Amino acid sequence: MDGNNQNGGNYQDYTANVPYQAPQDNQGSNGTNGLQIAGLVCGILGICTSCCYGIPGIILGIAGLICAIIGNNRGKSGVGIAGLVCSIISIVVGIGALIYYIWIIAYMDQIGYLDMILQGM
Known about the structure:
mainly alpha, 121 residues, 0% strand
């Protein structure tokens, strides 16, 4: 053995003559736009805030539904469909919560508990 080839002397650097390639800008390649993201955010926030008498959930759900529909008209992607689904769920849960709270308040009034609360017991 020759003393020059002990530590991989046959290694050649093949990357030395490769030209520089700038990184590709993949922004927008998947078709997601700002309205689709806004629809998803409004839908998620609407689901989370539906417990506040249902009204914020309904409002955010409608806003998210509008944003998701307009965003999906410009180009479909998974984010747009998820925003559409979350907004619809937000509206349904918000309406359900609103009906539940109206029913609870009517029931409390029917049994006289609401009068006790309003009179200060």
